[in-house]
Hints:
Blueprint (H helix, E strand, L loop, with lengths): L7 E3 L6 H9 L16 E4 L4 H11 L3 E11 L19 E6 L9 E7 L22 E8 L4 E6 L4 E4 L11 E10 L2
Antiparallel strand pairs: 1-7, 2-3, 3-9, 4-7, 4-9, 5-6, 5-8
Amino acid sequence: MDCMFDGYTVDNFYLDPIAVRSELLSQPFSPPHPSGRGGPAWRCTLPPNSELECKLSDVWGFPIYSLHSEARYNVASSSTPRGFCHSDFSVSEFTAVIYMSLPEHCQGGTNFFRHRPSKSTYYHPGLGQLNYADPDSWELIHTVDMVFNRLTTYPSKNFHGIKRPFFGVDKDNARLIQSIRFNRAT
C-alpha cells in the first residue's frame, strides 16, 4: 500500500474485460439529474454480482458485501457541480472503481487529496462542514491513472475526485466506469 493512498490498485482485473464492457454498455442509462444532484454522470444500477464480491474480498483480505453497484459515464461536455473533491463517508465503508474505457480513450483517473487546514486525508465528524469547492483547501497526494480494466479500491471516507479531462461524445468513447460501494462483512 502507498503511504499516501490506503487502498489498492489492480491491473487486468477482469479476465474478459471486453465482455464486461459490452454488458455494461448494453444497460439502460439514466441521464444526470437536472439539479446536478449526484454529479454529471449518466448512470445505471447493476444487479448484485457474487463473483465481483469474491474478487474484492480477495483484494482486501476480508469478506465483504456489496451495497450498490452501478455503471457510469461522463462525456466531454460534463461538468461537476459537487466541487473539487468529496468524501463518500456516509455511503459505504469502501468504494471500488473499475475503469472500462477502451485504451485509446483513457485519460484522467482518480485523484486523492489532503485537507490542508486539518491535514486529514479522510472525512471524520470532527472536521465539520468542509468547502469542497475551494481548491486552495486541498493538496493532491495521489493519483490513480485511468487504464482499461484497472481496479482502484479505497475507503469511501477518503477525499477523492475525478482527474480530468472528461472525454468522448457518447457512452462508447466516454469516461466509463463500474462503481461498487461495499462494507466489510461481519
